[in-house]
Design goal:
This protein has helices at about 5-15, 20-25, 60-70, 85-95, 110-115, and strands at about 35-40, 75, 100-105, 125. The radius of gyration is 16 Å and the shape is globular. The protein has about 140 residues and is an alpha/beta fold. Helix 1 (about 5-15) packs antiparallel against helix 2 and helix 1 crosses helix 3.
Length: about 140
């Protein structure tokens, strides 16, 4: 189960629920040198896709981000928006109590750990309305 499913369930059931305990365990740093990181798309994920305007909020998604940040997860706003449109999206999120550790960039902990920044955003999960999960089975013969 991805962290999103657990977070939605934990947000609905509260901090005393088994889902909350499982979520807390799932995102724990453990022996990792940096925290669990989730990159979240804006249009179509945090709000309805109404480009160039900002659409109706997706309240359930907006509720899980503060919960995850309380558990130590770092959040990246991952969007095609840039400059003024990105600033508007970040302001819109802040007005709803949602903060990010980075926007269209890697979290500082990743830049520090790898000692450089890349164009590709490093995350453990990517939440996007247009996502397709691709899995690689190392047992398969690839030619």
């Amino acid at each position: 189960m991805c962290v999103l499913s657990l977070a939605l369930k934990a947000a609905a059931e509260g901090p005393d629920s088994p889902a909350y305990a499982e979520l807390k365990q799932r995102v724990a740093q453990g022996d990792r040198p940096y925290p669990y990181i989730i990159a979240v798309d804006f249009d179509g994920t945090l709000c309805e896709n109404n480009w160039p305007d900002i659409g109706k909020e997706n309240r359930r998604m907006l509720e899980v981000i503060p919960l995850l940040r309380q558990l130590g997860v770092q959040m990246v706003l991952w969007s095609c928006r840039e400059e003024g449109d990105l600033a508007d999206a970040l302001d819109w999120c802040r007005q709803r109590g949602v903060e990010f550790d980075a926007a269209n960039d890697n979290c500082p902990c990743i830049v520090e750990y790898f000692e450089w920044n890349t164009r590709k955003i490093h995350a453990d999960e990517y939440w996007d309305d247009r996502a397709v999960a691709v899995y690689f089975d190392p047992k398969e013969d690839v030619e």
